[in-house]
Amino acid sequence: MRLARPFLLIALILTNGCQEGRSLPAPNNTAFKPAHGLILVTRGTLPQLDEALREYDALTKPVISGRFPVEIHPQPDGSFAVLPPQGLPAYDMVNMTVWLDAPPDQVDTGDAMAWVTSPDGAVAYYLEPERANRWGDTLIGATDDGHQVRVAAPETYLSLATHHVRFKPRPRLVLSRQPKTLVLTLDTDTGISNPQLLLHSDDQT
User: Fold this and answer.
1) What is the mean pLDDT of residues 42-48?
2) 3-state class of 98 per DSSP?
């Protein structure tokens, strides 16, 4: 059994009720802009991934709620692409990747990585779990212009880093005509965490 993510389990407040669906209006928070991208989960089954996403949806009570469809597309190599067609809060692109990498009590689901574009479209990131961190709450990766980065969950604190992970191009996906689709209720509050997925000011030049 894998250890549960302490920071996520502490945040378990209220079940929000994951729903089925595909087309939703934009969140009411006009200051909010979603990050876009995908999460690739390379180990596990569709039912296990479905369960993990529902558990993630139940972790917190949003301050400013937004509803976001998330599609699961099986890939020929046995992996699954978790694709949010309308994007997600930057906070959730990071924290969902951490969660799906090793959902508590699900030893057969994991090995997740993400391709994320900042809400302003200026920076594309490739992110994967930092295996050297036994707490499992950091991702490392690189930007499309060659900067190596580390992002800490849950706050999405983004900083420059020195490691050997290079930017990987976004994979070409096989999209299902009828993907498994869930609707997640997530927080669009831009007053918390790092909603624009920007480098910490100490790392900016």
Assistant:
1) 95
2) helix
